[in-house]
Amino acid sequence: MTVFLQNLINALQWGSFYALIAIGYSMVYSILMLFNFAHGDIFMTGSYIGFGVATALIALSATGMLALPNWLILVLTVLFSMVLTSFLGMFIERVGYRPLRDAPRASAAITGLMIGIILETGNLILLGAQRVKFPALVEPVTYDLGGVFVTNQKIMIVVVSLSLALALHQFIRRTKWGMAMRAMAFDYAVVPLMGVPINKIAAMTFALGSGLAAAAGILFGVAYPVLDPYMGIVFGWKAFVAAILGGRGSILGATLAGFILGFIEIFVAMVFPSTLRDFIAYSIILLILVFRPYGLFGEPYSVRLRL
Amino acid sequence: MTLLSIENLRVSYENIKALHGLDFQIEEGEIVCIIGANGAGKSTTLRAISRMVKPEAGTRMTLQDKNLLDYSADRVVSELGVSHVPEGRRLFENLTVTENLKLATFARRDADRVGADLKRMFKLFPRLEERQNQKAGTMSGGEQQMLAVARAYMSGRRMMLLDEPSMGLAPLLMMSMFKALKEINAEGTTILLVEQNARLALQFAQRGYVIENGRLVLAGRSQELLENAEVKKAYLGG
Fold first, then answer.
1. What tens digit of pLDDT does each residue of B65-78 get?
2. Given an 8 Å threshold on Cβ–Cβ distance, is B103 in contact with A307?
């Protein structure tokens, strides 16, 4: 039982990363009919931006001009990095995807892969091939709950991820921007006839998705402080799977699917040799998709994509 | 006073010419219809005006003193007040009635008038008020058509472009829909509609154009067109 609970807690943390990345994948996919295959690398870049911001803030604090406690550095790092990565996302949309709005979807997919390669290579050129260490900003505290160990980091990661997912869900449900996004997810081509500037909605979609990916990147850096330029690839693919599993256009679906993916991976590794983990985990996902091909919470949308 | 002026409107899809140079004008406050067979270019004409398809070089389209070609599709609606009820209604079926109507006011600058306009539409179409929290996709065809018109009104009501508003409606619903449109027009909205149901359109509009294979072949007062031998033969069933 304690083993089970311990794994459950680990799975919650692991699922948090998938969930936050999957949300951005899912949003772009449903609102813009686009698989943003660079999304995993945006997560990676967000993590590195976080590394840069945190390092700068620590250096600033060390000069004594502005003594910042570690928790404040972490909060500022998350906020700054989310904003900066949002701008990166908007830039990618503007330069990479917007010119391809009416191009075949395969062109956009290839562009996405290329953008990913540019982000990875750009990182290598800037920082070199060695891995970097994410600064330790959260003094680890471990709580022993009857043999089950929970760290303050894990609690923070899960709480922050869930809060961001819920906040975004509310944004989509309640604001006029969110309403425009839901409308675009249903029938993209008519939205301009409502007077809605779809380019702004597209930019906002990328900004939100990239911001959440940056948050995931920093939380990942807190839990696993070694960053490398290729860390986004596998995470990106797995989050893509979670986005599909969650269902088109559903924030909560993507979140839940992220956690489900985390659970399956962790529990498969608990029972089977960990070398078989991904093989078995993704066979299970495939099986779920056989029975629910539109994902867990797929929302209906118009099949008419052009006016 | 002339509200909309179209000169030499040409549109091609891929390599197929859809419109071969249309010329027409619409006066402020008018109801004008374009009638023609399926595929003649009726919907394309409306799409060109609302900037959803790109016309070829040489086309001139002005709304009073504004060059329509300077405006993107969303700004035609939000800045020039030209709304478009597209073919097949195209409601956001995953949004509620109220959300559909509110979305249409996304970029409106006169936020203080939105409430009054919403009231006006609920008065014109009481069914919509009853169903305001219902998803648009769960309503009947007639109710959906009401919502499509109300949504267009909310987005911009200087001029309304209507693509086959009678499609799929039972005769009684059709009549009440056109009655509502007359009311909207009487309050100052200029209306351009395209219809396959020529008789209905000509009874409703003051003037009409006949479009064939991407060309306007006839124009005139509705009464003249209704009595025109060719129109009778081709569009009014003898």
1. 999 999 999 999 99
2. no
Residues B150-183: tens digit of each pLDDT: 999 999 999 999 999 988 888 889 999 999 999 9
Closest CB to A176: pick one of B90, B106, B137. B106
Asked if residue A12 lies in contact with residue A153, where contact means CB atoms within 8 angstroms, the answer is no
Binned at pLDDT 50, 70 and 90, residue A67 comes out as confident
Query: Locate tokens 């900066």: which residue?
Result: A84
ipTM higher than threshold 0.85: yes
Which band of pLDDT confidence, cut at 50, 70 and 90, is reported for residue A238?
A: very high
Q: What pLDDT, on the 0 to 100 scale, is given for residue A299?
A: 67
Angle between helices A105-127 and A231-246 (to 10 degrees): 150
With 0-12 / 13-18 / 19 or more C-beta atoms within 10 angstroms meaning exposed / middle / buried, residue A61 is: middle
CA distances from B13 to B9, B44, B56 (A): 14, 10, 10
For residue A300, what pLDDT is reported? Answer: 62
B155 to A194: CB separation less than 8 angstroms, yes or no: yes
What domain range is B117 assigned to? 2-235
Is B50 near chain A, with CB under 8 Å? yes
Q: Is A137 helix (H, G, I), strand (E, B) or coil?
A: coil
Q: What chain A residue is nearest to B98 in terms of C-alpha separation?
A: A179
A194 CB neighbours in chain B (<8 A) are 74, 77, 103-104, 106, 151, 155
Q: What are phi and psi of B219, to 5 degrees?
A: -145, 150
How far apart, in whole angstroms, are the C-alpha atoms of residue B24 and residue A229? 60
Q: Which residue of B has its CA nearest to A303?
A: B90
HSE of B143, CA atoms in CB hemisphere, 13 A:
19
Whether chain B has a CB inside 8 Å of the CB on A155: the answer is: no
Buried b (16+ CB within 10 A) or exposed e, B203-214: ebbbbbbbbeeb
Contacts of A246 (CB under 8 A, 6+ apart): A22, A26, A252, A253, A254, A255, A256, A257, A258, A295, A296, A297
Chain B residues closer than 8 Å to A179 by CB: 95, 99, 102-103, 106
Q: Give the angle A86-A239-A74 at the CA atoms, nearest 5°.
A: 45
Contact of B52 with chain A, judged by CB distance below 8 Å, is answered with: yes
- Nearest residue on chain A to B161, alpha-carbon basis: A193
What is the tally of structural domains in chain B? 1
- The 10s digit of each residue's pLDDT in A251-262 is 999 999 999 999
Residues 6+ apart with CB under 8 A from B47: A307, B11, B53, B84
pLDDT, average across residues B122-148: 95
Q: What is the pLDDT of residue A307?
A: 45
Using CA coordinates, name the residue in chain B closest to A177. Answer: B106
Q: What is the mean pLDDT of chain A?
A: 92
With an 8 Å Cβ cutoff, is A244 touching chain B? Answer: no
The answer to whether A294 faces chain B, any CB pair under 8 Å, is: no
The enclosing domain of B96 has a CATH number of 3.40.50.300
3 state SS of A298: coil
Count CB atoms within 10 A of the CB of residue A62: 11
